[in-house]
Write a structure and sequence with these properties.
Low-confidence stretches: none
Number of helices: 4
Order of helices and strands: HHHH
Shape: elongated
Oligomer: single chain
Helix content: over 70%
Distance between the termini: 43 Å
């Protein structure tokens, strides 16, 4: 499964975009480790790394939103919590199996990749646009 950052995911905010590139790379590494048969331990390690980076990224995004006075910060935090719950569900799936299964990879696609790409294209892009407009108030 090919998972990569492309132009449709650009928000226009360099900080957010660079972190999204890193996050997507980590997701790609997780899926690759599952598909190449690296086993349960490797999948858990990759999931740990993804989880840690997600926490860092969401914290940075939420701080950026708070600092800019973004009016929908609480709704955005709820969306981030959804993603964190999806990661926890993946941990549960791995615990119940001998290693990453096809079902596990399908859940990564649906609840991580698809969710994240949609989130970036909608929620994160609206944040970047808001910050850009605040920074260029003469446009208002």
């Amino acid at each position: 499964m090919l998972i990569e950052f492309d132009d449709t995911l650009i928000t226009g905010n360099d900080t957010i975009d660079s972190q999204h590139r890193e996050l997507i790379e980590k997701i790609s590494n997780l899926v690759s480790s599952c598909e190449d048969g690296s086993g349960k331990v490797k999948a858990i390690q990759m999931l740990d790394y993804l989880s840690e980076y997600t926490d860092f990224h969401f914290s940075e995004e939420e701080k950026l939103q708070a600092d800019s006075g973004y009016p929908e910060l609480e709704q955005h935090k709820k969306k981030h919590a959804e993603f964190k719950n999806a990661i926890e569900e993946l941990y549960d799936m791995l615990e119940e199996s001998e290693g990453p299964t096809e079902e596990f990879v399908a859940q990564v696609q649906k609840n991580v990749v698809d969710w994240l790409f949609n989130h970036i294209k909608t929620f994160d892009r609206s944040v970047a646009e808001y910050i850009n407009m605040r920074g260029n108030s003469e446009r208002l």
